[in-house]
Amino acid sequence: MKKKKICLLAFATVLSTSLLYGCGGSETPDAKADAPSQMQESSPASGNGQEKLFTVTFYDTDGTTVLSTAETAEGALVDSYTPEKDGQIFMGWFATPSMTHEFDFSNPITADTKIFAGFMENVEDTRTFAILGSGKSPLLSISSWGKTIEDAHYLTKNAGENVYTMTLDLCEGDEFQFAVDSAWSNQRGGGYLTHTEVDGTEYFTVAGGLSEGSQKSNIKCAVSGNYTFTLNTYPGADVYDTENSYYTEETKENYNLNPYDTIDWTYNGEMASGEVALETTYYIKGAIITNWEDRYDEQYAFTETDGAHTLTIALEEGDEFLFTSLVTADGNSSTGNEYIRYSNVKDESSLSYVDGTESYNMVAKEAGTYTFTYHPDTEALTVEFAK
Asked: Which of 215, 17, 26 lies closest to 118, judged by CA?
């Protein structure tokens, strides 16, 4: 599931023209709520002895309908307020009518200023979201990146709200995202996190994924414990990456994005259950050797002895490859989140036999028999070669 890098601002114009709704005509009283007063805190008098005032105009989404105005002294701040409109959600104030930049109310007013409201249609979300990933925690150990979705993997939707929650144990190193189904429709990843740390402790990182954009990157747990997640959705602002070369109308939900959805979380303390005992086996996967397919056959598998994992295999010159993992718990196997790449090769002798790519895959320099030895405790891979 390869996807191009998604830039949040690339969709702002789409939102402003097709997803954010405004009122036409003259000033609309129903879009006012606690509008700022006509006069803000005064600044020092100007050189001619008169206080210099500027007009701040609050516009509706259409960029022409005036919601309110405020006469503001030079150097003073203008107050924000929340307008209301039936059937719509107020998403904030913007500095441009295209809604590409939020307005910064901490900047002093130094000229006549226009501010634009962002409204979005209030649409009920009828989707169901589940956690998809891999790891040592009870739910993720059987997920296999969404190949297995049971009732416990689904988030609970709050009645009357577009709010989904779930509480679960996570282990350090677990990686996951939220999505609608095993096809990863409506994927919500690390780029939607509201925060990753609390009081200087980093609980999550935005890890790699099959997409270059952070919105679809994995969420990686840095501290084992019990967590509650809250996914807030705004389906009225969903957009699609139609520029992706893999996009089709049939698979459009795989390219669903949203600039307003958020994933919030709280740390509840230690895990309620323990880690799941996993057995990890590593496999080679490459352009020539497996045609980039996951081949969990014995001939492609490492064997483990006293903590060291070893594979001896013949490779053709120029074959690009890496090593993936398969984890087994209670007899059930699923794809792991551990990969062994060129960055795991440290010693000069090993580096003389393989090259690296920009994506940190390895490339065989010569045709012959390679022996790879991997130590999970140090994450070091050594390479031996024989013609």
From this structure: 17
